Amino acid sequence: MRAADLVQPYPTVTLTTPAIEAARILADADLPGLIVVDNQGRPFAVLPGTQVLRLAVPSYCQDDPALTHLVDEAAADVFVRELGDRTVRELLPPQPHELPVVPPQATALEMAALMARTRSPLVAVVDGALLGAVTLHALLDRVLPL
């Protein structure tokens, strides 16, 4: 099985997309991450949902999980407001990593190895232009025995 057999259309965001909008796209479509594209529509990065949470969850709660118990429920339920006016650019790690992009001919093993190596929940499939993505879920559904 090849990437071309598993690729699905996939939503994208740009570096200037508001972070809160990216979070809504993730939540509304129940996605593991988003493809960030440049001005020409080429994949620039993959933004895992956990990176959105990294900026939404106050750093003091990440540094000391015991403090999360001290926040009342009403305040805890709106932590995502911490995203404020931030953009997708601010959600990305500062150091460029290997881009999880494959051609349509990539095998299941090639995609799995790339996902594992880059810790990405999806790979973008590109053949000149972005064709879509293969998610970890879709890949596992096809390779696991019934």
UniProtKB/TrEMBL annotation:
Pfam families: CBS. CDD domains: CBS_pair_bac. It comes from the Bacteria. Residues 8-43, 98-143 form the CBS domain. InterPro entries: CBS_dom, CBS_dom_sf. This is CBS domain-containing protein. It comes from Hamadaea flava. The lineage of its organism: Bacteria, Bacillati, Actinomycetota, Actinomycetes, Micromonosporales.
